[in-house]
Amino acid sequence: MLPTNMGWPWSSPRCATSDTEVMARENILCGQRVRRLTAAALAFFFIISTSSGALIPVPVDGDVQAAVDGADPGDILVLKAGQYKPFTVDKSLTVLGVDGPVVRARIQTPAITVRADRVTISGLKVEGILKDADAKFSYYMETSDRKSHYALDMPNVAILISGNDVTIEDSEINGAEVGVQAEGASNITLWNDTFQNCDSGAKLLDCRGGRIEASRFGECKKYGVCVERSSEVSLVGNEAANISNVGMMLKESSRCLVEGNYFSGNWQGLVLWNSSLCELRGNEAYRNLYYGILIATSSNNTVIGNLVRETSRNERMQSGMGIALLENSSHNLVAMNTVEKNRNGLDIAKGCQFNLICGNDASDNCNGIRLDKNQNNLVYKNNFWRNSHANAYDNASHNFWNATVGNYYDDYRGRDDDGDGLGDDAYWIPKGSSCAVDWRPLIEPAGKDIDLVAAKNDLCVYAVYQPEKKLPYRIENRTIVIDSGPPTTWWL
User: Fold this and answer.
1) Residue 14 phi, psi (nearest 5)
2) Long-range contacts of range 453-460, CB-CB < 8 Å, 24 or more positions apart?
3) Is pLDDT of 73 > 70?
4) C-alpha angle with apex 160: 156 to 163, nearest 5 degrees?
């Protein structure tokens, strides 16, 4: 079950603030290794001991499709080391690989097609086919009994899923245009799988529920994982490394959980695009090239307790953003994250409103935080340390840098004569054109004991800037006529 604090406002301060420290990478990997060893040792015994179906050995290099056709629902097909042709599972079966059997895809023919519910594929090596427009066109033209499903835009998928409650586990998928693709399915599980050298590793389209856990995605060209038009999908404890585009992408999706994943060496680590009510918690992004974590055109998401380090700094390409909110992203919570050694630690730009940025540590970046062309965002209780260009930057915006308290800046030199922990002198945001001010800068760094419900209320109280309303006009006989009209409440 997903956490309950995924909407705006968050339902429970305890739920919203618990377990927010980023786990040590070594502990995460250790836990995953233990689970993998346990699974490898017990999977065969567990499946056989809990199944009421028959155990059906498939001859080495034999016809898996014939075995599927002759099996009854609930049976277990056992494939030993060898080479196997593509097959389709159209009934509830378990296909269990022992000693790494290999199933190879063909042009327009997935290695494994799953059309039934409650299917498990375990312990297989699946070799796919990369995108090859020339080979696909030749196949289409040479097929005498062409059918509608031989579409030229159909990707070469290694494992294609249309059934519900399907599990792919302990398997290796290599060299496919799409490693695993599920469309219109519910409760798909990918566990302890390896995706290597695919164009896209795993793609979930119009799916509901399910999880991708403890899996590895490497050297893919487009995505490690792409979740599109889907909901309630959990991505937990995975690793995406050296992806040419995006490690994990959530597009037009909602109520998804992304927790404890590791992103390294990708063009972009983790991206939310036009998605809402998602929670990004406890992930680590290290040495990605453009963005560590990017939220674009997305609202009502929670970004909490993540660690983003050493996103590449490239002044010419404007890259190197740690955690970024862009393109009208609003009502998001960005709290208790650590961003260090990026170009911009936190970056909020292009029409973002009513975002709450609190309790974050930004250190050793070029800019600790940069806001550009936004309004009504509240930035407070953050710590800005040792940022080389500026701790804070606010340009062409109208944002708020304090509520009852402000932020900690290690270059603040003001007084605190009354000893209340707040500077008596204001801190003027040093960079940008907005002339922004933190009226209550902290003398000591802020702690992590932040009540997020109270913080949300502070946002409602302090972020009340009303921009100048443009008067409507019309053109009559080549003359501009301005309508003064009755005043309106701009936020309704």
Assistant:
1) -65, -45
2) 453/9, 453/10, 453/13, 453/16, 454/13, 455/335, 455/356, 455/358, 455/378, 455/381, 455/403, 456/8, 456/9, 456/10, 456/333, 456/356, 458/378, 458/380, 458/403, 458/404, 459/354, 459/356, 459/378, 459/403
3) yes
4) 160
Checking if the pLDDT of 414 tops 90, the result is yes
Q: What are the backbone angles phi and psi of residue 412, rounded to the nearest 5°?
A: -75, 130
* DSSP-assigned letters across all residues of 134-202: HHHHHHHHH-TT--TT--TT---EEEEE-SSS-EEES-EEES-SEEEEEES-EEEEEES-EEES-SEEE
Query: Torsion-angle region of residue 99: left (phi > 0), alpha (psi -120 to 50) or beta?
Result: left
Confidence of residue 448 (pLDDT cuts 50, 70, 90): confident
pLDDT confidence of 371, banded at 50, 70, 90? very high
Q: Sign of the CA dihedral 481, 486, 490, 492?
A: negative
User: Is residue 299 left, alpha or beta, with left meaning phi > 0 and alpha meaning psi from -120 to 50?
Assistant: beta
159 close to 167: Cβ distance less than 8 angstroms:
no
Percent of the chain with pLDDT over 70: 78
Quote the pTM value: 0.84
pLDDT of residue 339 exceeding 60: yes
H runs (alpha helix) in 300-439: none
49 pLDDT exceeds 80? Answer: no
